[in-house]
Structure formats: structure tokens, C-alpha cells
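Annex B. Sample input.
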Amino acid sequence: MSERRWALILGASSGFGAACARALAAAGYDILGVHLDRRAAMEAVDALVADLRSTGRSVRYFNTNAAADDKRAAVIDEIAALLQEEGGSVEVFLHSLAFGTLTRFIPQPAEVEAGGRAARGVTRRQLEMTLDVMANSLVYWTQDLVLRGLMGEGGRIFSLSSSGSHRVMPHYGPVSAAKAALESHSRQLACELASRGITVNVLMPGVTDTPALRRIPGHEALMERARAANPFGRLTTPEDVADCLVALCGPGTRWLTGEVIRVDGGEDVMG
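Annex B, continued. Sample output.
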């Protein structure tokens, strides 16, 4: 029996994370998923896990806060024990955490007049939380995987950015900063991990109808503009990104690292 190939996905219960879990399972990877969902969403998560297991793969999901140090340590310990028992290593690691504030840096006059939290603009706590969850956590998880010996030569690390890393959009300032930091962290990790035979790349999907997108004020207009700009005349789907990720896990991509790869059907160059 060949050695198991494991894929670890942060943000594995919906959107890009769920689509990538399905695609990787179909490609023969056993799945480790980390997600944070309330009880009301667990029926859908359980259905996803059942679908993944129907492919014959081993699947283990952890419902916990991936950005908390103690929770991360606990999951890493469980993964280490599981791999010790079942064999194999983490060959693919996908960072797909999408949780951050959508508060403006400088509130608009109407927001000031209305009062409430938005009236003061983004706070230090909100900004630091967004950067920590959506960017810095990539570094901490990678450290644990590599230094604990859970990922070695041939490992593939991916994260998900967006065109907001280099464009200004209303309400997106904190997330934009996090995406830019995520790309910077990935370049640094790519250089530092090259000697270990591990590659690190960023995928930049086009506008995709996901739960995260629908939390952005004015997302309807974003979707309309993206559809009009895309040469294919449609939005990107999570499955578009998942198919590309699986292809990039192949042995012929060992020399591809430190890159930001657009997976958007040409949307960004047209837009």
C-alpha cells in the first residue's frame, strides 16, 4: 500500500476551502480540515464530510479557531498523532481563512452622523485581528507543520489572495492590507523553504460568489462589474480554483514558487 498523502485546509467548510477539499479528495488526498462554524451550520459541514468520505479517503475535520495559538497547537498535536498512526505526511497545505473587519479607515459623514461603531473608523484591535487571521496565521501554521516534521520535501503550500491586495475598494481596507501581507509572507516563506524542497504560492481568484464575498457591502455591484469585465462572461467559481490547485500539486511544479497566480479567467487584466 502506498503512503498516504494528506492535505490540510484552513477554512475547509465552505467556499474555496470546501471545493478544494472535494477536488483534493477526488485526486487521492486524505483530508484534514479546520473550520469555525456555529451549530446551525454543522448539518452542511457533516454532509460535506460524508461526501468526502464517500471517495474512500480518510477525513478529519476540526471545528475550532485556527487563529488562536492554543487551538492551533491542539490541532497540530492531533494531526501528528493521526499521521503517526495512519502514516504519510501533509503534502498540501491550503490557507483559506476569510474573517476580518470591513470597517472603513475613515468613516463617511453619514456614518459619523449615525453613530455606532462605524462612526470612529477601524480600531487597532480590528485591524490587528484582520491581519493576524488572514495573513500572519499562514506563518504560524507553516512553522508548526515544518518544524514538527509533518511536511517535508515535495510539500506544496498555497494561500488565497484577491485583487484587493493591489486595488482600493470601499470597506476593504483592512482586508486589502491583510491580502498584501499574505502575499509578502508567501514570498518570504518560499525563499526560506526552498532548501527543504517545499514550494509556496498564492492563488488569486477572480470575484467569486462565496459567503465571504456576500459580507462585503456593495458585493452585488462587484459581481456585476466582474461579470462584465471577464472575457468568459461569468464569475469565477470555487471549482475553477480547486481544479487549478490540484493541477499545481503535480510533480512538474517543483520549480514554481514565490508566485501570485491569477485564477480568474482573465478578469484582472481586463478590468
